Amino acid sequence: MIEQIIALGGWIVSVISTIVTFVVAKHKRHDNDIVIMQERIVDLLAKNDRFIDEIVELRKENATLKANLAQMQAELEILRSKVQYNKKTRSKKK
User: Fold this and answer.
1) In the prediction, which pLDDT does 60 show?
2) Is the pTM for the entire model greater than 0.70?
């Protein structure tokens, strides 16, 4: 009888220790997953910051190019006016 109680006690202890080990391992895996996700978030935020910096630089460059284009269009219009004026004065001289 005592041997049966000892055997049953050993069985119960092994079942409880297995359950405790499973719960602790599951909790640790969950913690590791959270740490991995946090590291990925930090990496993504760093990449996002780089993309934002690049976008800002591209917008500055785009604004400069638009300003240059507007200036060139104005100069082109002046040149066209001069050409038209020269054509009119030449045709009057003939």
Assistant:
1) 97
2) no
